[in-house]
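Researcher: Structure for this, please.
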Amino acid sequence: MKKDEVTIKDIILSLRNHLAVILVVTALLGAATYIYSSFFIPKQYTANVKLYAYSNLDRGSTTYVSASEQEANRRLVDTYIVILKSNAILDEVSQRLEEDGLHYSASSIGGMISAASINNTEVFNVSVKSRDPQAAQKIANAVADVAQTRISEILEAGGVSVVDHAKLPVSPSAPNVKGNTIIGLLIGLFLSCLYAIIRDLYDTTIWSEEDIQRNCNIPVLGTIPKLESHEAYRKE
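Model: Predicted structure, token format:
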């Protein structure tokens, strides 16, 4: 196959000729990814707690909350998330966990926490990831309880209330075994196809008279037929 004359037909023929290799490599890499994801990557469990951010203006109001007040609350969410990860909150969470027999420093708890607003509303979600599902649940609920009292003391302009406490996670959130396996299969398929195309692209072996015409650009005047073995002639 000449480098400057590669066609779609040539590529299809290369893939067909190396179909067995492509299937084997794809299956092996997919299986390896599945085994590695299932047995070698530590499982992570995620517990979620939902909090509602409010300001003192709408908390003390007996009427409806205006659109401007709702927008102000949404902007406060980012501030509350920052305070949620401060040492003032995390140190108290660590102390509460000590009472339950869980020993986590404030810095380690901070690394386990992530928070984000839900659909750009006043409600935001706090997620805690841990290898222990019970620890993830207890830490998430401790964070929510501490935040409910401490944020209002720190800001004096609003606070948070708990919408949903964390439930015990029953299945791991990571690793994504199915997703990783699919990625492994796709990578194996891509690499094996690339190998097949490159192998044929640089293969100058002459297998037939068509290869001579295509690679050397010279006409074939004749071919030597394959002779039978000497034993066949002796029998005659």
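Researcher: Any notable elements?
Model: Residues 52 and 220 are 83 Å apart (CA to CA). Strands lie at 45-55, 113-117, 123-130, 158-164.
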